[in-house]
Specification:
Largest sheet: 7 strands, mixed
Number of domains: 2
CATH superfamily of the largest domain: Jelly Rolls
Oligomer: single chain
CATH topology of the largest domain: Jelly Rolls
Radius of gyration: 17 Å
CATH class of the largest domain: Mainly Beta
Order of helices and strands: EEEEEEEEEEEEEEEEEEEEEE
CATH architecture of the largest domain: Sandwich
Strand order of the largest sheet: 1-20-17-22-15-13-14
Strand content: over 45%
Shape: globular
Length: 238
């Protein structure tokens, strides 16, 4: 029997710190909802807007796979592994925090905001040596098709993490349909709509809605309008 969970955009947790406006799909920081702790191994899905010239000071992480997907603007990253980089729309950044890292993230522009998704996935391997990676994707490869951006395999398309997970982005024109085949037994798929209107297995979704579905072999996607969305396939038991 198929199982689903629907998280409408307006039901998310909200924290406005002035310099940071953050929407939390799952419990995070001061937002706590025992019904929304995670979706399988997907632990955090934060929709963040950082004001011009502002950002997150150096802070620690450990034993978490941290994925950043920029949506607008330029985000500067510095970490304790001596990485200094800037990520923007079209880039994907990943960190395996493992035994522990420190990093900071800043909006490097003084005249505009930066928007990005901060995603945490619970790893299947603890206390690994910390690692960092960042790639630039060809956005055309998600036009009316599903572009793989993350997997468990270092030799596969996109970045990789220590978890049996796959992420895909789609940028569909109105009327386009596609199927997504679940890649691993016991995995579920959490869809997050970035813009527009889409139906997944018949469920109507709007911008910033989230929809989790598991105990299925595939999901059906139909673009009701021009739409951009993220699919995150993760183990439901971890």
């Amino acid at each position: 029997m198929t199982n689903t969970v629907l998280h409408k955009a307006e039901t998310r947790g909200h924290a406005n710190h002035g310099w940071l406006n953050s929407m939390h799909t799952f419990s995070f920081a001061n937002y706590y909802n025992p019904q929304r702790m995670h979706f399988g191994a997907l632990r955090v899905l934060n929709d963040d807007t950082v004001e011009a010239g502002m950002g997150f000071d150096k802070h620690p992480h450990d034993n978490m796979e941290i994925v950043s997907i920029p949506l607008e603007g330029d985000l500067e990253h510095k970490d304790s592994m001596n990485n200094v980089s800037v990520i923007k729309y079209g880039d994907i950044q990943v960190m395996s925090a493992g035994t522990g890292i420190f990093h900071s993230e800043y909006n490097r522009n003084k005249d505009r905001r930066v928007k990005f998704l901060q995603i945490w996935v619970i790893p299947n391997k603890k206390n690994v040596t910390p690692r960092y990676d960042q790639i630039t994707l060809n956005i055309a490869d998600r036009h009316n098709k599903l572009q793989q951006i993350l997997s468990p395999n270092p030799d596969d398309a996109g970045v990789w993490i220590y978890q049996n997970a796959w992420f895909h982005l789609g940028l569909f024109d109105k009327g386009v349909s596609a199927d997504y085949q679940v890649k691993a037994n016991g995995n579920g798929v959490y869809a997050f709509v970035l813009s527009g209107d889409v139906t997944i297995n018949g469920q109507a979704l709007k911008a910033r809605d989230g929809y989790g579905i598991w105990d299925v072999d595939k999901i059906d996607i139909h673009a009701v309008s021009d739409t951009e969305f993220l699919l995150m396939e993760v183990p439901m038991i971890f």
